């Protein structure tokens, strides 16, 4: 045969092989499998009783292999984890934190999701590395945050969703959804847009934030439950709610004008609350004074009429006496408060005509009018 001419064996013992090439010495030579098997057999025989394979030795090897195999089922569940045990790929049970055991592979396997940890997803904003500040800074994401309200206004909403794996829902979390974080983010953005689309812009920017957060959380939970995602939404927090940056200055002017309007209305209401009770009090006072004057005038008129009737009765009994009495009382009232000088006419020539005698005499107080009964008693 042709290769025999190359000498020594089928490939020849010379410097060339059957195709005219020499031995390849560029890389390492592969290990000799027979040599490795022989060495492993020798070492195993050294550990076996009697130095050779026997029934006892094979049994010990099998027992050791089974012990090692069963020991592979020991696993530890960390404090924020939850063990999900699978038997031939099918969900069997949950394993709480601590040292646990499952049947060795391939009978059972375990998955360790972070089921007890509260996860956070930010929508409308993201953290980016800032070399200038040597840290991370917040950047707005308009394609996520700009939303249309029910009154056809645009609002910029940044919010955060806190979520975790629902108790008893680890199996659904692992097998029913492929990308849990992406699913939660998509559902959160969709729910927020739906709630904002049903609302007016003014309540969203002022006092309805808590209501909006609650509605978004309920809608997200309902949607995720319909997916059997095994996810629980713990909280929705609206971080920033503003109009778009292009119109925020004009919007703030409108808000300031509305605040001034409310302030003026409150001041007017305060003035009305103060002045109306005062006016009502004065009107009540005037009415009470008029009522008192009425009662007084009526009482005086009745008293005067009763007095006149009494005098008339006396007049009918003694007309002359009564007439004189009325005359004297009238003259007393007329002359009681006037200054009077009485002097003898014969001595009049001794009085200086222009002497102010009225200023030289002391003034007497006017006598109090006497009642009818007293006057009658005096006479």
From TrEMBL:
Subcellular location: Membrane
Domain of life: Bacteria
InterPro entries: Band7/mec-2_domain, Band_7, Band_7/SPFH_dom_sf, HflK, Membrane_HflK_N
Any single GO BP term: proteolysis
Claim: Endoplasmic reticulum is one of the keywords in the record: no
Keyword Repeat: no
Membrane topology annotation: Single-pass membrane protein
A single GO molecular function term of this UniProt record: peptidase activity
Keywords: Coiled coil, Hydrolase, Membrane, Protease, Transmembrane, Transmembrane helix
Biased composition (Gly residues): 1-20
CDD domains according to UniProt: SPFH_HflK
Chief localisation class: membrane
GO cellular component annotations of the record: membrane
TM segment ranges: 47-71
Bias type Low complexity, positions: 369-379
Residue ranges occupied by any Band domain in the UniProt entry: 72-255
Coiled-coil region(s): 247-274
Disordered, as annotated region: 1-32, 357-379
Family: Belongs to the band 7/mec-2 family. HflK subfamily.
Subunit-level organization: HflC and HflK may interact to form a multimeric complex.
Job description of the protein: HflC and HflK could encode or regulate a protease.
Matches recorded under PANTHER family: MODULATOR OF FTSH PROTEASE HFLK (PTHR43327:SF2), STOMATIN-LIKE PROTEIN 2, MITOCHONDRIAL (PTHR43327)
Protein name (database record): Protein HflK
